[in-house]
């Protein structure tokens, strides 16, 4: 059955920032599609506790800050120890910060780059080793339309830069590992309802600009990103690598 290609039964996935928002929606759809899932984030939420309660065998929570040097090794080891393999990595954990270019001192700049770029690089570097041993795997980096446009009305130059770099990292990794049966793709969401956008959506001026620039005229639900993630991480996308799948309600069409 063609639809079976969307199943990921028996695969093991590691999802960073899986405690809420887009990451949590991805964790839920992966569990529904049959995978074992290792979730990480700094704080375990009630939603994660519910998942652990309902799926003791297939879901594991590993607390960690993706910026810490020891986190990537610890996450990948935990996946291997618990489930014996690692097939899917979703680099989802991310943060945003608003301000003019000249306001981004080193501390603010590093906070964004360390979380959104350096950490995904290090975690992918760690995850690729078991994938090479297994002769297969797939990595999904959560990028953004912010890689291609200047955000408005909020200014986010560090965030924009981190997401552009993640898209490029995705393409180069895809090129390097295509012949080793490891696919690497990115998902570029538009404006999605989550804690990250909560303040902006509550701000009438910002939310008006965001929706007026989105031809579909609305924000996305995290679940609308999760279905895209499942596609890219499943055999349904067996010939897709180095792609950036834009899911933005048309934001970048104009
Ligand atoms: P949320 O703020 O809702 O969730 C962010 C997640 O990342 C949380 O699970 C958080 O957990 C985790 N996280 C953040 N920092 C760290 C850290 N240092 N170590 C470990 N985990 C961390 O964000 P979204 O769900 O909206 O965003 C998810 C991804 O999607 C991000 O990469 C974001 O840039 C991207 N994106 C979001 C868009 C949107 O409109 N929402 C649009 C385009 C892209 P905890 O705080 O417990 O650590």
Automatic annotation (TrEMBL):
UniProt entry tagged with the keyword Oxidoreductase: yes
Keyword Zinc included in the entry's annotation: no
Gene3D superfamilies: NAD(P)-binding Rossmann-like Domain
EC number(s) given by UniProt: 1.1.1.47
Pfam families: adh_short_C2
Keywords from the UniProt entry: Oxidoreductase
Annotated GO MF terms: glucose 1-dehydrogenase [NAD(P)+] activity
Family to which the UniProt record says this protein belongs: Belongs to the short-chain dehydrogenases/reductases (SDR) family.
Name the UniProt record assigns to this protein: Glucose 1-dehydrogenase
Native organism: Mesorhizobium tamadayense
Lineage: Bacteria, Pseudomonadati, Pseudomonadota, Alphaproteobacteria, Hyphomicrobiales
